[in-house]
Amino acid sequence: MSTEQRNVDPEEIARFDQVAARWWDPAGEFRPLHDINPLRADYIDRHTRGVAGKKLLDVGCGGGLLAEAMAVRGAQVLGIDLSTIALDVAREHAQAGGLNVDYRHSAVEELDEQDFDIITCLEMLEHVPAPEAIIAACAERLKPGGDLIVSTINRSPTAFATAIVGAEYLLGLVPRGTHEYARLIRPSELAAWCRQAGLSLRDECGLSYNPLTHSARLTDQISVNYMMHFKREAA
Q: Are 229 and 149 in contact (CB under 8 A)?
């Protein structure tokens, strides 16, 4: 499938390619992801009743932060991304750590497998032209009874002020231009796409990050960053 046919923004891929070599630098551009990764991994492990021994697909895996965390917890992980540079970084880091993670240059719509116990799609939907198509493709590739975990940013005035103006332009937590307000996703929109794809909402929560202490916690406030857990009903 050509780049023109894929559900991808080439400018977004190019932007992440430029910083891909620094995915695993805990003091670099991806420090917020390093800081929140344990919290995300715990959430996934808890809400899926344990990832150990399960087949897990990480959509938009980037340099492999979450994929490795899931592999350490015993999951059989396939990470997919459309950035070849990020995938090279992910493979090199996993190999250096002795972890068995399968990384593949692929869009989720291109995968033949339809037997995943768990699919994760974190901080990715806001970077593609048609996020609802990603959700539909994920739903098709889940086993009956499988779990989908999604995290993204709300399209709200609070998110604009904190995640874009604050994080990108005032504090420099992430590179400027990383997020486009019009592409942010309201929880109601995400829930509707999942219902249309045959998934039921099981949990939603906010994720609060303090850039001064580099600490994160789950909260009931979903006005900025949030996570949602969906399940495909058993046959």
A: yes
Residue 2 covered by a domain: no
Annotated binding site for S-adenosyl-L-methionine: 40, 60, 81, 122
81-139 tens-digit pLDDT: 999 999 999 999 999 999 999 999 999 999 999 999 999 999 999 999 999 999 999 99
Domain count, the chain: 1
In contact, 130 and 103? CB cutoff 8 Å: no
CATH number at residue 217: 3.40.50.150
In this structure, what token pair is assigned to residue 190? 């995400």
Range of the domain at 22: 10-232
- In this predicted structure, the answer to whether residue 4 has a pLDDT above a threshold of 60 is no
The amino acid present at 209, given as its one-letter code, is Y
Mean pLDDT of 193-216: 94
Model confidence pTM above 0.85 = yes
130 in any annotated domain? yes
Q: Does the residue 98 lie in any domain?
A: yes
| Cα distance between residue 220 and residue 20, in whole Å | 32
Q: Which residues are annotated as a binding site?
A: 40, 60, 81, 122
